[in-house]
Specification:
The protein has 299 residues and is of the alpha/beta class. Helices cover 29% and strands 18% of the residues.
């Protein structure tokens, strides 16, 4: 293991953890989700790299975060309405030209390396059998050194040949700054989480009872998930109820990944150390080198 690979896998409380490069970002010199970004991570033997995947109109699997090409690229239009051919001359708006890439490009780059590929599947409409098969076939060369995550548990159920990770944001979410109810979940529960489950508004449920009930409910939606990917604000809110989510999930053989720690996250070092103390296995970040320094300070 080279020095950087070791740095990005800190040994915390006797367990090797992983720092995941969000959107393939390591140094920040290249556009997020670009092939050059991923290549830098692989060459550094980063333990885990995350990319976003969107299906196009011709079922091509584009590595891209947003629903539309504006304003981060030279192209325009919604990704779901375009085809691979439409992107032939499209590049990121960056200091140097970088074209967009596809899932098979990333798989070719990661295959045979020590880096795990984390696919964030952005598809919310029900996935077709053809698309589910195409996605699993594209990931097959990685021989299991991959994990596919999504908020759409109905789509993850269709993926039976790859490890899956569930992001429960549509089930419960802590966001004290949010004042609108258009997004899901639409109900602000009595324990401070946005949550449409009936128990979220039952005043006879203690915070501990509420949290345990919801963990069981959400696990039941996708029991095959080997990992939950949870925003760190929600993890910290549950900790106020006495629930160390990482430790709780590990009792059921499920790991916890926390997203997304950024360079400008307030009290970032404290955030990193608290996440590890609550049993987090993987921290997803677009500032992995800084988070590695934060983790080292906890040793």
């Amino acid at each position: 293991m080279n020095d950087l690979a070791h740095t990005l896998q800190p040994l915390i409380a006797g367990r090797r953890r992983a720092i995941c490069c969000h959107s393939g970002t390591l140094s920040g010199r290249f556009p997020p989700n670009s092939l050059a970004n991923v290549a830098e991570c692989v060459e550094a033997s980063a333990p885990r790299v995350e990319v976003d995947v969107r299906f196009m109109a011709d079922d091509a699997m584009l590595i891209f975060h947003d629903t539309g090409l504006d304003p981060s690229t030279s192209g325009s239009g919604k990704v779901a309405n375009l085809t691979r051919a439409d992107l032939a001359d499209v590049s990121y708006r960056w200091g140097s030209p970088h074209g967009l890439c596809f899932l098979e490009d990333v798989v070719d780059l990661v295959r045979g390396s020590a880096t795990m590929l984390q696919v964030d599947l952005k598809l919310m409409r029900p996935i077709t059998d053809r698309r589910a098969e195409a996605l699993q076939a594209a990931l097959k060369p990685l021989s299991g050194n991959v994990i596919v995550g999504s908020q759409a548990h109905w789509n993850l159920r269709s993926l039976v040949r790859v490890p899956i990770a569930f992001d429960p944001t549509l089930q419960w979410h802590y966001d004290p700054q949010r004042t609108f109810a258009e997004a899901l979940p639409r109900t602000l529960g009595i324990h401070g989480l946005w949550d449409d489950a009936p128990i979220a508004v039952i005043r006879h449920a203690t915070p501990e009872t509420y949290a345990e009930s919801r963990i069981r409910d959400i696990r039941a939606l996708l029991p095959a998930a080997v990992e939950w990917m949870v925003d760190f604000a929600t993890i910290f809110r549950l900790a106020e109820f006495g629930v160390a989510l990482g430790d709780r999930l590990r009792e059921e053989g499920c790991a916890l990944a926390a997203w997304t720690v950024r360079e400008d996250t307030p009290s970032r070092r404290d955030v990193v150390q608290r996440l590890y103390a609550l049993g987090t296995e993987t921290i997803i970040t677009d500032a992995p080198l800084l988070v590695a320094e934060d983790a080292a300070a906890a040793l």
